[in-house]
Amino acid sequence: MNLYDLTVPQLLKMLHNADAWLVAATKHAEAKKFDVNHLMKARLAPDQFALDRQIQAMCDNAKFIAGRLTGKEWPAHPDTEAAFDQLRTRIAAVVSYLETFKPDDFAGAGDRKIVLPWMQDKWMTGDEYVAEFALPNFYFHAVTAYAILRHNGVELGKRDFLGNVPMHS
Amino acid sequence: MNLYDLTVPQLLKMLHNADAWLVAATKHAEAKKFDVNHLMKARLAPDQFALDRQIQAMCDNAKFIAGRLTGKEWPAHPDTEAAFDQLRTRIAAVVSYLETFKPDDFAGAGDRKIVLPWMQDKWMTGDEYVAEFALPNFYFHAVTAYAILRHNGVELGKRDFLGNVPMHS
Q: Whole-model pTM above 0.95?
């Protein structure tokens, strides 16, 4: 399986899904007459990232995956978002970045040496990075963001998490 | 990337990680002097699966992924677990099942037509199934189980979620 096919289209879909979760939360807040930005610092445990940081980490993981597997630069985002609309802008920026990639960019990506910031002089292959670090970590933050919203009463279901899945006939 | 490499070893690792989360919860309950099985029905939202069902779904997704991609039968598990030690036995059963697979079993898996129970006469390819349904769904239940435990004070961190990652030198 080509690492482009395994990553970029699915990351794009999940980012669009996450944007829709934020829209659903905004509608929920309007209906309940509270400021949706009260959810920015909602968290499931006091020593866990809040919603804002979960969305930021989800965005970062998506851009890191594409950038690291292809050896391309990624845009910097300083984690200054203080409101839902700014989180949505952050998501849109990463969507735009991911949309610049083509399958050919991922030639040889599976064998590329990936060095994460905390690995010092160690490395893993691109294949290992995708299977054992990148996707688990991306979904960790995506699911936690979704769970924080569900825990706070936002009406979301599994279909909102997954988005549309392929159906051929 | 071979679909075996992308799935079986990582699913096995995540199942072992989940078993360790249950052990950590048991130790936490002993220290706090409560029955760990009080956590079986803990959930993050009233209309979301509780911990027991999250672990069962994580186990089911793992066996479905290997079984569907290879066309092999999977063992039936009737979701009757009523205590933590039974959830651990369920995890161990799926670990044993996954350990029977070899990379050769996955020859042609990416092009295999996968029909999920709710798809009627539609289908997706094995590659699409892994990228857009199987892994997102597996991690959905894994992260939610982890989040329920974190929300209830069990001392876990990202490293417990990911487990060991490859480090070559």
A: yes
